[in-house]
Model the fold of this input.
Amino acid sequence: QVQLVESGGGLVQAGGSLRLSCAASGRTFSSYGMGWFRQAPGKEREFVAAITWSGGNIRYSDSVLGRFTVSRDNTKNTVYLQMNRLKPEDTAVYYCASRPPIGEYNYWGQGTQVTVSS
Done:
């Protein structure tokens, strides 16, 4: 079993930066793929970024490509989301999730709020 705890959210002005962290428990963290998702008020949850267990394969949604960077440190059981040049439309609750080498995302954190003011 994997438990995930996000942190690093907050209020920032447009153009600013935040770094989210997702700390994972569980001895199998290093073998899990990790993803970041977000959900804005009144909208469905959407994919933001994903990284494989080795960090060798990374994907981003078109809306954050070039502004956000996902990374992981398996020695610290932590995955990060560096968010630069933030926009008001990035305002959402951000969730990290993990998935086994074969399968869907099956563990989710509680989320952290990111608010970008214009």
